[in-house]
Amino acid sequence: MQEFTADLKHRMRGVWRDAELVDPNTHNNKLATYHSWFAIPSSRNERMPIIVPRYLHLDLSKHVMRNISKFRLRVHTLKDEAAAWLEDGSCVCDQCPGEDEHVQNEVHALLFCQDHRVCELRKHFFFLFTPFFEDFSAAQPFLLQQVNNQLVHDFLS
Ligand SMILES: [Zn+2]
User: What is the 3-state secondary structure (H, E, C) of the chain?
Assistant: First the structure.
């Protein structure tokens, strides 16, 4: 039984080891996206208690909890997820004004999208963004420069 358990743990960690090698900014991969931006790092010590995401400890309605979980697990209708289910689906954001083409993924929606409704939300919750992203301002409530995955992870955590 111990051999089976050890093999199962090794295989489970192998899934995450493989996901570590994939950048969600360049590959549309659900597992890599979750691992890079949302996952709580697993402890090397198997006797340590499991750490659950912070939002699960907050006093939020079931509806909000469900929506956060769906967003984290890529169960949403952003273009990069929808494209995986449609033969000729495009990942390009259809909400950004202008000619530039941006992949509409979780990070784009949270930090980069220039849709006026999203910008208004960011202005309203400005205090959440400024500790992490110095480029944010009320006049420009979106980022123009790419940010690294660790910073995105820290913000989402
Ligand atoms: Zn956009």
Answer: CHHHHHHHHHHHHHHHHHHHCCCCCCCCCHHHHHHHHHCCCCCCCCCCCCCCCHHHHCCCCHHHHHHHHHHHCCCCCCHHHHHHHCCCCCCECCCCCCCCCCECCHHHHHHHCCCHHHHHHHHHCHHHHCCCCCCCCCCCCCCCCCCCHHHHHHHHC
